[in-house]
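Readers outside the structure-tokenisation community will struggle with the description of the input data as it stands. I therefore recommend that a typical entry be quoted early in the introduction. An entry of this sort, consisting of the sequence and the corresponding backbone structure tokens, reads as follows:
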Amino acid sequence: MATRSLSPSRVAQKVREHRHAVLVLARLAAKKAVQEQLRAQGVRVTLVRPAEITERAKAYLEQHPELYQQSLERALRMGLIKQHPLAIER
């Protein structure tokens, strides 16, 4: 019989760490996409307030939830997380 190597609180902490890594990568991808859109419109990104870019990135992320899955896959490739966050370590 397999035994769990981590306590329930440690499992919860790992899930939070994984979730945080995925959220950060998703936000960065959304921000990059917004900046690319602005550049395509001929706008100098350095002249746009960072708060406005962040606001637009939030809206972009809401419209493109697939970025979360892509970010999870990217975090796995980068070694930020060892396995899918919902997989149980034994």
User: Anything to note?
Assistant: The two ends are 10 Å apart (CA to CA).
